[in-house]
């Protein structure tokens, strides 16, 4: 008999965004309506029934603003216009209406740490227009012993190389924590904050339902911009991540704009810890949720992103416990494996060759049965996999191309073939191959030449086949999404991790007692391609197997023998 504290409906602190499942659309790769090889807004509208059928509640749309597309829209040149290849503002308005007509909500991407260098603000800033002179972070550099120019400090760009670029027109360096075409805004400047808050309000007035905020904990840089620790994972990070004014900027954004609207906000926050997640997105924090990255680094070798290491299940359990327990009383988790920046999860944590279906379902079970809001990235619900990146010319991702060049400069590296495995494994292009709609030419994504290669497995892995198959990854996701929306326990229930040291089985319970009902679920996940028998330390009188990625009706969760990548969800009765 397990005792769970009885909660009143009030104490559940219900919120629509806690009960929602989010589906992320990367429009460039979702569906092309006009044959130019690039996905667009009209194409997205054509596929909304598919998204609604899956049962999700919220769509997060990657940036669709006007942009030179150096970083696929994360380099914005006009916050209030739509990128021409994606469509027009009228198309975007039609998309919003169509999403709402299907009882879903639309969350937009907010990219305000930096703009494109083509933004009018930057153009005027580099010309020292008095109104915009201070909109970006400009500094004099120094000179070395040979008289060559040197940057103001040793900070690194996330995409490789120095975070500083010399601008001959202005005669100063500007800071860019990402690509050279993405100068960082100067958030110390009141006028910058005012302009950004106005932009946020402008979009909220259009009726959107929230924002996913790009690298939002990078806005505040330490005064004096001191050198960073040269041995750290991202040089300079201690001076620009969670900077001194960070919380107050977000509090002002919330007080002045966001709090007037019933919207959800989720901050993307590099190097986020549980403690700062509570500050930013606890009950008193300015945001609703935050994305951390701890589980996305499990397969790094020694903390190095451009490497592949073995990952361990006990480590995943430790960090899951840390986040589930750490935000139990205050805060709310985000649950994700994939997004447009992450390689495909089946290729990282599953077995794409031998157990693609089973492992894709297992990974889906994980994010759909934990406490928090699940985020599904387009194609994840089909078990899409990483692609092959045979030549440098196949790559499109600025990050991968920059890093491939850096790797090619290393001693002993002769050509792309020497770095192909790591670049191919890690490139963000893996997430950006076109959505696989059917087995027709180009997977039904476009009638033209796709801007990026289609994954060669589209005849075997596509939405049309999977929708017709009850046993598919798609159908499994659909059932689990339904289960989650039917069961408060899967949304609000307490989490308890079991078997912390087991090398291949991850098991946990979710428990909830309300005035209406007491519910307990047990989730058992076998992260390996062999067979494993395990004793589960749970008390129950009766149990029902509610969902599994194998066909059986084993109703006894005491001692279980698990098949390769087996996932089971039980309901337990006391
Ligand atoms: C995070 C975004 O998700 C990524 O795609 C982008 O390149 C960087 N932020 C810079 O905006």
From TrEMBL:
Domain called Glycosyl hydrolase family 13 catalytic: residue spans: 24-432
Keyword rRNA processing belongs to the record: no
UniProt GO MF annotations: alpha-amylase activity
Keyword Glycoprotein: yes
GO term, biological process aspect, one: oligosaccharide catabolic process
InterPro entries from the UniProt entry: GH, GH13_cat_dom, Glyco_hydro_b, O16G_dom_2
SUPFAM superfamilies per UniProt: (Trans)glycosidases, Glycosyl hydrolase domain
UniProt similarity note: Belongs to the glycosyl hydrolase 13 family.
Protein name: Oligo-1,6-glucosidase
Organism: Haloarcula mannanilytica
């Amino acid at each position: 008999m397990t005792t769970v504290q009885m909660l009143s409906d009030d104490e559940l602190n219900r919120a629509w965004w806690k009960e929602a499942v989010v589906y992320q659309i990367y429009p460039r790769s979702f569906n092309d309506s006009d044959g130019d090889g690039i996905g667009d807004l009209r194409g997205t509208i054509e596929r909304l029934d598919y998204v609604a059928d899956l049962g999700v509640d919220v769509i997060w749309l990657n940036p669709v603003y006007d942009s030179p597309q150096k970083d696929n829209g994360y380099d914005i040149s006009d916050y209030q216009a739509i990128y021409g290849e994606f469509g027009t503002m009228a198309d975007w308005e039609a998309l919003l209406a169509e999403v709402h007509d299907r009882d879903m909500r639309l969350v937009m991407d907010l990219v305000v740490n930096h703009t494109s260098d083509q933004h009018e603000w930057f153009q005027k800033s580099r010309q020292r227009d008095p109104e915009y002179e201070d909109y970006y972070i400009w500094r004099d550099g120094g000179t070395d012993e040979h008289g060559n120019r040197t940057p103001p400090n040793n900070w690194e760009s996330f995409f490789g190389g120095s975070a500083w670029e010399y601008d001959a027109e202005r005669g100063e360096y500007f800071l860019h924590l990402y690509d050279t075409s993405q100068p960082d805004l100067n958030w110390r400047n009141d006028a910058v904050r005012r302009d950004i808050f106005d932009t946020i309000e402008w979009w909220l007035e259009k009726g959107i339902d929230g924002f996913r905020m790009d690298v939002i904990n990078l806005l505040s840089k330490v005064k004096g911009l001191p050198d960073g620790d040269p041995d750290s994972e991202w040089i300079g990070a201690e001076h620009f991540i969670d900077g001194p004014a960070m919380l107050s900027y977000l509090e002002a954004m919330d007080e002045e704009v966001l709090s007037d609207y019933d919207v959800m906000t989720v901050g993307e926050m590099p190097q986020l810890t549980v403690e700062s997640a509570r500050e930013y997105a606890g009950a008193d924090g300015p945001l609703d949720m935050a994305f951390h990255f701890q589980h996305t680094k499990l397969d790094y070798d020694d903390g190095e992103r451009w490497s592949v290491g073995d990952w361990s299940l006990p480590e995943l359990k430790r960090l899951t416990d840390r986040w589930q327990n750490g935000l139990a009383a205050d805060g709310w988790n985000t649950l994700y494996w994939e997004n447009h920046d992450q390689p495909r999860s089946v290729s990282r944590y599953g077995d794409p060759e031998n157990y693609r279906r089973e492992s894709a379902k297992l990974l889906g079970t994980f994010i759909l049965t934990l406490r928090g809001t699940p985020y599904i990235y387009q194609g994840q619900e089909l078990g899409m996999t990483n692609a092959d990146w045979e030549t440098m010319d196949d790559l499109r991702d600025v990050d991968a191309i920059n890093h491939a060049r850096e790797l090619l400069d290393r001693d002993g590296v002769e050509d792309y073939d020497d770095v192909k495995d790591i670049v191919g494994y890690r490139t963000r292009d893996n997430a950006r191959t076109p959505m696989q709609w059917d087995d027709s030419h180009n997977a039904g994504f476009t009638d033209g030449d796709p801007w990026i290669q289609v994954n060669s497995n589209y005849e075997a892995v596509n939405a049309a086949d999977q929708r017709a198959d009850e046993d598919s990854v798609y159908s499994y996701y659909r059932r689990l999404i339904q289960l989650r929306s039917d069961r408060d326990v899967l949304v609000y229930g307490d989490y308890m991790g079991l078997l912390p040291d087991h090398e291949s089985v991850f098991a946990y319970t979710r428990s909830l007692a309300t005035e209406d009902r007491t519910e307990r679920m047990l989730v058992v996940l076998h992260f390996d391609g062999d067979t494993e028998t395990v004793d589960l330390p749970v008390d129950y009188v009766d149990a029902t197997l509610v969902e599994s990625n194998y066909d059986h009706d084993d109703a006894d969760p005491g001692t279980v023998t698990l098949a390769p990548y087996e996932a089971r969800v039980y309901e337990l009765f006391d």
